[in-house]
Specification:
- This protein has four helices and seven strands.
- The protein is 22% helix and 39% strand.
- The relative contact order is 0.19.
- It has a seven-stranded antiparallel sheet with strand order 4-3-2-1-7-6-5, with helices on both faces.
- It is of the alpha+beta class and 153 residues long.
């Protein structure tokens, strides 16, 4: 039996009302962290280093000197709920969009990113995650001692 799921999908980073760029997003789920999903974005799309000129359309090969992927971790339930109705109160918001799409809004001190996914890709990923840990059975896979040890680091 599998203990994790990892899928790479194509998405669009929305830059303005008329401009977007395609990017690959790695979706991840692990049995040992059963409440969370992970979204990994290429480092060249990071907002951490303003003015470095490595953003989309800069003409510079950002992948050459880019660091590790940027990873966002949030509740699997948030992703699932956001496929049907707008969901999210904090740094991550998920909502349906026209044309069988889903918008994921990621907010950080450096700025906000709006990423558009094909809803079918997210549904497939969630279905695979539920094969690893069915919805409602997450509590059976929580390891409180390990979580506490990670917090105390």
């Amino acid at each position: 039996m599998h203990t994790s799921v990892e899928e790479t999908v194509q998405a669009r980073l929305i830059l303005s009302a008329h401009r977007s760029v395609r990017l690959r997003v790695t979706l991840g789920y692990r049995r040992e962290d059963p409440l969370a999903v992970r979204m990994g974005f290429p480092a060249e799309f990071s907002l951490d280093e303003p003015g470095d000129g490595a953003g989309p359309g800069s003409g510079r090969d950002a992948s050459r000197d880019a660091g590790p992927d940027i990873e966002w971790v949030f509740a699997r339930q948030l992703l699932s709920a956001g496929l049907e109705l707008a969901a999210g109160d904090g740094d991550v918001h998920v909502r349906p969009a026209p044309g069988r799409r889903t918008m994921v809004e990621l907010r950080a001190a450096e700025g906000t990113a709006l990423v558009r996914f094909d809803t079918a890709d997210l549904r497939r990923f969630l279905w695979h995650s539920r094969l690893v840990v069915p919805e409602g059975e997450e509590h059976r896979h929580l390891d409180a001692d390990r979580a506490l040890a990670e917090l105390l680091g």
